Amino acid sequence: MSYGKINSYLSGLNFHVKFLGTDASPFKNEKTDFSDGEAIYCKWDKIVCKPIEIKVSFDEAAFIDRIVVNSGERGAYTCVYLTDKIGQKLAVHRSETNCNIAAKNVELEAAVITDGFSIVLEGNYFDLDVLSVDIYGNVGEDSCLFPIPRKASYGNYIPTSTFSTLFYNTETSKKASYILKEKYFEKTGIELIRSLTDSASIIFIEDNSLSANAYRLSIKNDRAEIFASDERGFVIAVEAFIKLTNENGVRTAEIEDIPAHPFRGVHMYLPAIHQLEFTKKFIKELISPMGYNVVIIEVAAGMIFDSHPKINEVVADAISKAKKGIWPTFPHSTVAEGEALSKQTVRELVSYIKSFGIEVVPEIQSLGHVPFMTFTYPEIAELGEDETIEKTDTRVEDA
């Protein structure tokens, strides 16, 4: 089957409700499934702050993408989390302080291959009220791609030599074509040659009916067609093509995918000089294939300030002394590891990330979060009425 809700496809699916860490059930006659359409419901006085575990098991391992806990109007929780079979947490959904979880449909991302997991519900003198547990993923066939596409069907493998030429005729697909050429050569040793006609074995087709970052991929017989409306969509499609390529050949497939979230970002520090090559590999081998579309880079004092070089000098000295144990750890000392990258080096890194169709957002701290400035120039720090510059430790974050 294709990706979707798989409750009815899981053989031997069983729900076992108990107090966490015990074999005791909060019910006299334990309810073990949702087959009759009734909720798992229990009054608060039977629970009394004890976490409730819904232990889910099935006969054969399946890929579990996410779990959705659908709650009724009578229950309330402060925390719902997902664990694997040995109790390690996979996902957590927690309420704000002194509040209950407002959402009645709590989604927990799993991304595991397993034959069982547990859902734990925590509350303070609240009723337990669960209408259903929806399980999404794949069962009955191998999952070729991750993240899992909305629609996908797979066939046999065809030789990698089937693909030797590629065609694109828009700026939108140019970056993706470069990535495909590089990664396909790395995997197969075959150099794809650009064709000037759409009779090539791989063609890029701009389809403006597709939403941002969405794509369609068709691999069959001796041809692959890649559809998208923007740069990132084409690149994500190319990453899928590469994932379908291995020692057996290229797997035929019909795939349609639309990202679940428009913003899929990762936050990272500006790397140290010796980390630049690793950072590029991190972007190429993980961030791009996983479908992220934004990288947020925290700058702090990790880039040279041409107009105020004293900041870089003083911060580097402070971090050096902290590493020797002379001073306490300096805030944000992991940004570039105390080094100061040139603007040209930063520009080249940003350009590399953008070559994957990924947006780069610089993180510049707000004025209440700039110890690298206040430590260098303590006179600019805002002090309370009973404070003096001498009393203020400007090395403390947010001082």
Number of E-type strands = 19
Largest sheet composition: 8 strands, antiparallel
Helix content range: 10-25%
Rounded to an integer in angstroms, the radius of gyration calculated over CA atoms is 27 Å
Distance between the termini: 56 Å
Morphology call: flat
Please state roughly what percent of the residues sit in beta strands, choosing from under 5%, 5-15%, 15-25%, 25-35%, 35-45% or over 45%.
25-35%
Low-confidence spans = none
Order of helices and strands: EEEEEEEEEEHEEEEHEEEHEHHEH
Mean pLDDT level:
88
Structural class: alpha+beta
**Oligomer description:** single chain
The total count of helices amounts to 6
In short:
The protein is an alpha+beta fold. The chain is built from six helices and 19 strands. Strand 15 (245-246) and strand 16 form a beta hairpin.
Verbal overview:
This protein is of the alpha+beta class and 399 residues long. 18% of the residues lie in helices and 32% in strands. The chain is built from six helices and 19 strands. Strands 1, 2, 3, 4, 5, 6, 7 and 8 form an eight-stranded antiparallel beta sheet that branches. Strands 9, 10, 11, 12, 13, 14, 15 and 16 form an eight-stranded mixed beta sheet that branches. Helix 1 packs parallel to helix 2 (231-243). It starts with a strand and ends in a 23-residue tail after the last helix. The mean pLDDT is 88.
